[in-house]
Write a structure and sequence with these properties.
Low-confidence stretches of chain B: none
Number of domains of chain A: 1
Shape of chain B: globular
Largest interface: A-B, 29 and 28 residues
Oligomer: heterodimer
Radius of gyration of chain A: 14 Å
CATH architecture of chain A: 3-Layer(aba) Sandwich
Helix content of chain A: 40-55%
Structural class of chain A: alpha/beta
Number of strands of chain B: 5
Order of helices and strands of chain B: EHEHEEEH
CATH superfamily of chain B: Glutaredoxin
Helix content of chain B: 25-40%
CATH topology of chain A: Rossmann fold
Mean pLDDT of chain A: 90
CATH class of chain B: Alpha Beta
Strand content of chain B: 25-35%
Number of strands of chain A: 5
Largest sheet of chain B: 4 strands, mixed
Distance between the termini of chain A: 27 Å
Number of helices of chain B: 3
Strand order of the largest sheet of chain B: 2-1-4-5
Structural class of chain B: alpha+beta
CATH topology of chain B: Glutaredoxin
Strand content of chain A: 5-15%
Distance between the termini of chain B: 13 Å
Largest sheet of chain A: 4 strands, parallel
CATH architecture of chain B: 3-Layer(aba) Sandwich
Number of helices of chain A: 5
CATH class of chain A: Alpha Beta
Number of domains of chain B: 1
Strand order of the largest sheet of chain A: 3-2-4-5
């Protein structure tokens, strides 16, 4: 989970490189927009844009996770829909250093019981990259 | 007595955080114990993603950075 100099496998250590620490969080609901958020976050991570971190841990109030988010350079929150569960978790934890995108704001309809498409994921990834570049 | 735990596998920044923390504790005249937690499994139990990190009496105060001695005084003194 954490990265350190000697162990790139699990931790990002030493504040690692001088690279900015960007943490990525995805909606973890049951509809298609959650799958899109999750897949987009993973694609961003594997593209080197940040590290996925545990939204559930923040929701559970795990103190070390909350502090990790507060000490990150940036947190990108990918919410699925206008309910904004992820953003609300951040607000409740008092974490202010975040940017949010919402899958439904990108013209994607929230539906249950259907798999998402790669085009939808690509759309979110593109929007996220734009937000992160600002 | 304050329990100060340095979370990290022993890299230069981890060592620097330990030095600064100890210096801050001494400057504040605190009674303290300082412990290095180097096992990744134990570190992850704190919910920490990046090291070095500092826990004071079990509460994580700093993650992924090395604050100055002055900043640490404020973090461990309260």
């Amino acid at each position: 989970m954490s990265e350190c100099c000697e162990s790139k496998k699990q931790t990002t250590c030493c504040g690692g490189t001088e690279k900015k620490t960007v943490l990525l969080y995805a909606c973890s609901g049951g509809a298609n927009v959650a799958e899109i958020a999750d897949r987009a976050a993973r694609e961003l991570m594997f593209a080197g844009k940040g590290t996925m971190f545990c939204l559930a841990g923040l929701g559970a109030g795990i103190q070390g996770m909350v502090q990790t988010a507060k000490d990150a350079d940036m947190n990108l929150v990918i919410d699925g829909c206008p309910v904004e569960c992820a953003k609300k978790i951040f607000d409740r934890c008092g974490i202010t250093n975040y940017k949010q995108i919402k899958v439904t704001d990108l013209g994607i309809e929230k539906v249950k019981g259907v798999r998402c498409t790669q085009e939808q994921v690509d759309k979110v990834v593109k929007a996220a990259k734009e937000v992160l570049s600002k | 007595m304050k329990r100060l735990q340095i979370l990290g596998t022993g890299c230069p920044k981890c060592r620097k955080l330990a030095e600064n923390t100890e210096e801050a504790a001494k400057a504040l005249g605190l009674e303290y114990s300082i412990e290095k937690v180097t096992n990744l499994g134990e570190i992850m139990q704190f919910g920490v993603l990046m090291t070095p990190a500092l826990a004071v009496d079990g509460k994580v105060k700093v993650v992924g950075k090395v604050p100055s001695v002055e900043e640490l005084k404020g973090l461990i003194g309260g």
